Amino acid sequence: MESEKPTFTTLILGSYKKPSFSILLLFFTFLAILSLQFSTRSLFPLSILISQQQQKSSLDPTTCSAFFHDVPPRKVIMSIVDFGGVGDGKTSNTQSFQRAIRYMQRFQNKGGSQLNIPAGTWLTGSFNLTSDFTLFLHHGAVLLGSQDPKEWPIIEPLPSYGRGRERLGGRHISLIHGNGVRNVVITGENGTVDGQGKMWWELWWNRTLEHTRGHLLELMNSENVLVSNLTFRNSPFWTIHPVYCSNVVIKGMTILAPLNAPNTDGIDPDSSTNVCIEDNYIESGDDLVAIKSGWDQYGITMAKPSTNIIVRRVSGTTPTCSGVGIGSEMSGGISNIIIENLHVWNSAAGVRIKSDNGRGGYIKNVSISNIRMERVKIPIRFSRGSNDHPDDGWDPKAVPRFEDILISNVPYLQHGIVNMSLVLPMGYSPFHVLSCRTMALHPGVDLAYLPRADRGWLKFLALVKTRSLAHIVASLRSFSSPAQADYFATNLRLEHVGLLLNLIDIMSCSLSHPAFSSIQICLADCDNIQDTCPTSPSEKHTTSINGLTCNNPADKSAHDFKTMELSKSGSRDKFGSSINIVTASKFPGLNTLGISIGRTDIEVDGIVNFHNHPRASEMIFVKEGVLEVGFLDTQNKLFQKALKEGDVFVIPKGLFHFFLNRGVEVTTVFSVFNSQNPGLGSPTATPSESVEKIKRKLISLSESEVDSVDDLSLIVSEIIYS
Fold first, then answer.
1. Which candidate in 194, 265, 286, 356 is catalytic?
2. Which of 90, 227, 570, 576 is deepest in the core (most CB within 10 A)?
């Protein structure tokens, strides 16, 4: 009997029963799911991760309500007066507060307790909190920190720091302290906690501080905490410091310190989870809010990150620091951060993300949006910290990672002008393995205006660093007038394009030295034919070597071989640098020796653009500050290094190189050239033509062309050489 011919359906069903097909089906299904997860994460990195967390903890990123679980009315309510407190501003109430807390400890898990502080000035040293407890300051109540350091006892350093943050060994306890507590409320009717920090600041200024200063409020290993509706002022050190905590809400607070008070951060969540900071006003001598997670190898070992943190509707000023700082102590990792609706004025930065070599850790899944700024030096800044370490045990190979940072809708208001400058890290440790899978600048980031015309190249740096051609095209198309587009063209120079393409980790570009061509004078200095030949102060002497006349040997003196020329800086240029090169014409003793010397001073974020010395190699010595230096060899390979005080670096003869100051103070560099006339070369390509080509090409790209570009540097390089 002839068998039935199998149908298409039976063939398919039969294939499903084969083990090999089942394995392949499972494999490709897994790949599809994995691909979907990656693509979704790269588009919405923060929202996806937060939504995953919501499934576990029911957190709602649009409100703080889910971060703190409401507590029922306390069973026992008493006043500090009941424990012998006297609110005259002179009598010490340290014992009264400690008695009150000891008594109220018995109501943990038994309905809780509340300690009321009535109107008056209540002088006290440090005291500890307890669980299921409310500290309530009535209107007119002032809790005043003691001026006796003994009433701020020394406690063990935090394990994620390994020592006191300022000094070796232990640290002073905070004025209000809690360790291992839960269900705690610190609130009131705008009562005040005053740390009287001036005594502590003077110890710091005078360098007589023996132990790290205490905070105004520190909570350790605690959960479900609310701090609200109070004024905290004059903290000795960081004002509010939740560390190793979870579910903390800080809202409706006024935090005040003199603008020159050292390290008086407003709110510093540290290795903590589920923290909501909103509706606070802060004036500080340091960051208004600083997110941290441990210091170098100690933070790496503890591995306790700060995650799921919201900072919104915070306003204030800090002349030397930022509205929100992330790092530089971030060795345990920082992730899932929302920063939105800030108002910052008269400050050094709006938001600053900072780290250092040796920190390790990561900063990822950060959303920064709706930041209003007035008279702010650098709106969004990525930079190094103060390059400090707890001890010699830090690992130079521990480099931090930065991933998935979203910046959107950040107009910078200054005298009615919208402008934006974004200083991004360029290539060196700790940023040289920087991973920017989704470093996105949305079109809402207004890059049309800059505070100074010479910052125009920073705009292109911000765009290129995104590695997202779509965002660049969108930003260019978002220019509301031809004049704004022309601003882009006239202020972006080709040497800056070359610098950026070679310094911001886009090394696959095909730029080569023709773009930076200059006349190479391959002449060596002649050998000396006499010991010395100081330059003649006049031209009455006729012996001329290397173009300069020599003084009469009988008139030589030690004065010819000494100079004060390097004691002063040169004229500052518009890029924040000044160069003073001293040759034999200024320093007679150099004549015929085949050397010249120089001094370069670079302001913070200043740059000495690509240049070369056709006749000389250059050896540099960093006298003060930090310096990032790099040169391109004839194969277009970049050699780049970060230098600190005392470091020496050599730049081979004739190669193009740059200097950049990414530190926190002016950098001073001394140079020696192995030529009496080193010469100075700069890129010779016409900037305006190339920039205009870049602009025209990017704006004309179709959506499909945008999507097909894998490497922005290749298309920019193609435009330059087309």
1. 286
2. 227
